[in-house]
Every structure is written in C-alpha cells, then in structure tokens.
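Please check this record.
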Amino acid sequence: MQLPPMLQGDSLTRLLQGATAGCLITLIVGFGWGGWQLHSKAQKMAQDSANSAVVAALAPICADRFQHANGAPATLAKLKATESWKQDVFLVDGGWVTFPGSTQPNRNVAEACAKMLGDLK
C-alpha cells in the first residue's frame, strides 16, 4: 500500500509543522483572548464570587447587630476612635462577626462591617 503524496517526504514534514502551528495558535488565542480557562481557575473565581456574596449579605447584619447592642452609641465612638486597621479586630473581639452556625469570626465581614459603621454619622 502506497501513501498519498501529501504524507510522503517533505510534504509530511510541512503537514505536521502546519498542524502543530495551528494547534499552538488555537491554544494561545483560546486561553489568551477567547475566555478559555482551566478548571482550577474557574473554581477559584467561583469561590471568590461566593465569598463576596457572603460578605455582602452578612456585613449589613453585623452592622445592624452592632447598632442594636446595649450602649451602641458609646461603642460606635470607641470603634471610630480605634485605628482603621484595628477596627476589624474590635468587631471580632466584640462578637459581632461570629454568626450562628459558625465557630470562627469572618474577617472579611468584619472589614466590610467596620467600613459600613465608619460611614455612619
């Protein structure tokens, strides 16, 4: 059985070079500009999105709990007097960012809650 001329000698080399170049260009365009992504990157993006949604949902609850606690105006004054980079620790220590069903405080919620409370007048 004889191979077609396209698969013999220099033609075979050119065919394989073209196929390799086409494959590489497709991969570069697909991953670079086409929106293709690896499974791990997609999982990370989904996790980041979920974390953002949790913070957006829980920060107003934290602020509400803070405002309805005993001595809220005095505590708010203490919070505002605290340096901005320590305000999340202030809220964690106060227990406003530990929600039912969890044993650990959520630091991201604490930061968002501190920002919300800092914007209050």
Summary: The two ends are 89 Å apart (CA to CA).
